[in-house]
Design a protein that fits this description.
heterodimer, A: 338 residues, alpha/beta, Rossmann fold, two-stranded antiparallel sheet, B: 329 residues, 2 domains, 5-stranded mixed β-sheet, globular
Chain lengths: 338, 329
């Protein structure tokens, strides 16, 4: 039985020497950006500027931010519908992300996708995929193309633990392992598939066993610790690039509701409060302070920089144009062919 | 230009071979396409010629390997994915519909999925209700897909290459009853587009619109009608999406009477779509109601007499034409 699923990790690993103070502050600032960006999204949702589904990553920032550190520009990222953090951590323009949520033509998917479907090919981001586990076979194909073309690129595929129950997870594990493809399967285990706790949906709650049975090496990482994520995923990416698929389970927690429509009847407030004690941003900030690498002034400056970025993103979204309705049926096929 | 005689199966195989020789990005992937030689023997011999990297046997994971084809296509390959039959393709419907057909639009034009999916369709071999259906009309419902149904040997050979040149996903439906059919065709094959219907028989009394496995039955019916002094025109759709409205309406304007022959079920069918378009676009050209010959609304049964009864055949087409011309059944 997996203790971490029911309870937050009790202790975090000792500070890792994965980077310079500057790099660690950069990790902190990236997580802060994701947090503040999404907090602003909530306000904008309440102001009806953003509509549709809005799935917040708050609490899970360490996963995307840590995991992206070891990916190269040639690598490809496939994420779920809870992917604002992945887009931002991958370097997608926050303004283009916000404009997308506003449904504007300067959004990263021209307003065709919204919050759940952020795409940016120039940053190797293939979604924003909202059919649970539907992008896993695609990640296998990205890995296949990498192998056949010998590009050396890796597919980094993020998905929730809920995806593990889908057949496509198993088909993808088998195929990636059979063909030894460079795919890193990054399972963001936040304990709940929407409102269904993992122990209420999985006969075997040790998810790493499911990967192992396909001959895929499996690792579990404290997903609240951005440095642990960075270090662990760096190793996984190296294995994938060299020899074949890897499964990484990142133990994390969603502090906020599943979506803006979720009254959170399925979990108790104490559990949420307990996990909030392990806030990934606080954790790293405290570590940096303890190491003498962060003081109040520096933190305030980071907050200011993040606020400016978010303000600029909102401004870009506000001033963006709506795509003319005459263009409704564009992009169903490539432009030149029809 | 020379002429060569080959079967529909050989035409499919030659088309794959030629594409693989022309473009190193092309590879074939599917269940039993390699060591077994293809469940309909289409890919027999290709493993020896091209090796296991380009003739890729997959596990029985329709969703997995169709999705893998999508990912590989996005990343610059030109996969040909073979699904054994359209019934099995339902296991990959999520990938075809929610990913292949959708990604370009959903990404604001950034992504393209230049993927070709081939699959067998149709009944007539006593394979019962999980191997015999004609669901290509369902796929023709989906924006973002191009849907082809080569009904003659020449098209089986010629349509794959333009399908592979398309920057978006193309589905090719091969009616399994056609694999053994044989014809003399041009070699090298003609260049065809994948947008146009073909008029297979010219006539002035009635237009018979069909495709795929029903084409030969329809032509046979037209020949029989000719002996009764009924001159039928036969339109082979070849492309089920997008439909070639111009060819259809031109024929209707010429004959004023229409029978649509479709191996799919009648309700909500491709035949229904064609009929509606004719009513919308050529109503005043019609001298009578449009008739349809479709499969009976049952899961296709095993017993031969029942299967035969469920499918369009020459007699049913002839009777429908006679009714349409007001000459009774």
């Amino acid at each position: 039985m997996n203790e971490a699923i029911k309870h937050p990790p009790r202790t975090h690993s000792e500070p890792l020497t994965v980077g310079t103070a500057e790099h660690r502050r950069a990790l902190l600032q990236q997580m802060m950006l994701v947090r503040r960006f999404e907090e602003r999204c909530v306000e904008l949702y309440q102001a009806a500027k953003i509509r549709g589904f809005l799935h917040l990553y708050i609490g899970e920032e360490a996963v995307a931010v840590g995991a992206m550190q070891s990916l190269e520009p040639r690598d490809v990222v496939l994420a779920t519908y809870r992917e604002h953090g992945h887009a931002l951590a991958r370097g997608v323009d926050p303004g283009a992300v916000m404009a997308e949520m506003f449904g504007k033509v300067n959004g990263c998917s021209r307003g065709r996708g919204g919050s759940m479907h952020l795409f940016d090919v120039s940053h190797g981001l293939l979604g924003g995929n909202a059919i649970v586990a539907g992008h896993l076979p695609m990640a296998v194909g990205v890995g296949l193309a990498s192998r056949m073309q010998r590009t050396g690129s890796v597919a980094a595929c993020f998905f929730g633990e809920g995806a593990v129950a889908e057949g496509e997870f198993h088909e993808s594990m088998n195929l990636a392992s059979l063909w030894k493809l460079p795919v890193v399967f990054l399972c963001e285990n936040n304990s709940y598939a929407m409102g269904t706790a993992v122990e209420r949906s999985e006969a075997q709650t040790d998810l790493s066993l499911k990967a192992s049975t396909y001959g895929v090496p499996a690792y579990r990482i404290d997903g609240m610790d951005v440095e642990a994520v960075e270090q662990g995923v760096r190793g996984a990416v190296a294995i994938a690039r060299e020899s074949g698929p890897v499964f990484v389970e990142l133990m994390t927690y969603r502090f906020r509701a599943h979506s803006m429509y979720d009254p959170e009847l399925y979990r108790d407030k104490q559990e949420v409060a307990a996990w909030r004690e392990h806030d990934p941003i606080t954790l790293l900030a405290d570590r940096l302070r303890a190491a003498g690498d962060l003081d109040d002034d520096a933190l305030a400056q980071m907050e200011l920089a993040v606020t400016e970025t978010v303000d600029a993103a909102v401004a870009m979204a506000e001033t963006g144009e709506l795509e003319p309705v005459d263009d409704l049926t564009r992009f169903v096929h490539a432009e030149a062919t029809r | 230009m020379s002429r060569v005689t080959m079967t529909y199966r050989e035409a499919c195989r030659q088309a794959i071979r030629e594409a693989m020789l022309r473009d190193e990005r092309v590879f074939l992937m599917g269940e039993d396409v390699g060591a077994y030689g293809g469940c309909f023997a289409v890919s027999k011999g290709l493993l020896d010629e091209f090796g296991p990297s380009r003739i890729r046997d997959t596990p029985l994971s329709e969703s997995g390997f169709v999705g893998a084809g999508i990912g590989a296509a996005i990343e610059g390959m030109r996969p040909i994915v073979e699904i054994m039959t359209v019934n099995f393709s339902l296991l990959a419907l999520d990938q075809i519909m929610n990913n292949a057909a959708t990604l370009r639009h959903m990404s604001g034009g950034q992504l393209g999925v230049p993927l070709v999916i081939r699959m067998a369709t149709g009944a007539g071999r006593q394979l019962a209700a999980q191997h015999s259906h004609s669901l290509e009309g369902w796929y023709a419902h989906i924006p973002g897909l191009t849907v082809l149904a080569p009904g003659v040997v020449e098209d089986a050979r010629a349509m794959l290459w333009p399908a592979l040149q398309d920057p978006d996903p193309v589905l090719i439906f091969e009616n399994a009853a056609l694999y053994n059919s044989e014809a003399e065709i041009d070699d090298p094959p003609p260049v065809v587009d994948i947008r146009s219907a073909a008029v297979r028989r010219h006539g002035s009394d009635v237009t018979l619109i069909t495709y795929g496995g029903s084409l030969h039955k329809t032509i046979a019916a037209a020949e029989q009608l000719a002996s009764e002094d009924i001159d039928a025109e036969v339109v082979d759709l070849r492309v089920l999406r997008p439909l070639d409205d111009a060819t259809i309406m031109a024929s209707v304007a010429n004959t004023h009477r229409v029978v649509v022959v479709d191996e799919g079920w009648r309700t909500g069918s491709l035949a229904a779509e064609i009929t509606t378009r004719i009513v919308e676009q050529a109503f005043w050209d019609l001298d009578g109601p449009v008739a349809r010959v479709c499969s009976a609304e049952v899961p296709i049964p095993y017993a031969k007499h029942l299967e035969d009864a469920a499918l369009p055949d020459v007699d049913k087409i002839v009777h429908a034409v006679r009714r349409t011309l007001g000459e009774g059944a």
